[in-house]
Amino acid sequence: MEDQYVKVVFPTRRKVWVDDRLTGFTNKPIQLETGHHVFHLGEPVDYSPERQEVLVSGTLPNEPMIIEFEPAAAAPAEG
Fold first, then answer.
1. How many domains does the chain have?
2. Average pLDDT, whole number, for the chain?
3. Per-residue pLDDT averaged across 38-52, rounded?
4. 8-34 pLDDT tens trace
5. Cα 70 from chain centroid?
6. In a designed cystine with 69, which of 18, 25, 47, 48 is the match (CB 3.0 to 4.6 A)?
7. How far apart are CA 30 and CA 28, in angstroms?
8. Whole-angstrom Cα distance, residue 38 to residue 70?
């Protein structure tokens, strides 16, 4: 399998879990094998989407695949 490169983007530094293994941190390149991988940012789940399954292929060290997570919208206050 070929080495691939991804960069998981989030406004703050978070741990990045790939296939339920701690693999790196947001906003930094991560090296993986070619294939389908499941990405998430662990607990607390205050981001969206909760998980992303992505086929990682055709990347280069200086051209990583970008995988974006966003902060979850705050629940509206009841009242």
1. 1
2. 93
3. 97
4. 999 999 999 999 999 999 999 999 999
5. 10
6. 47
7. 6
8. 16
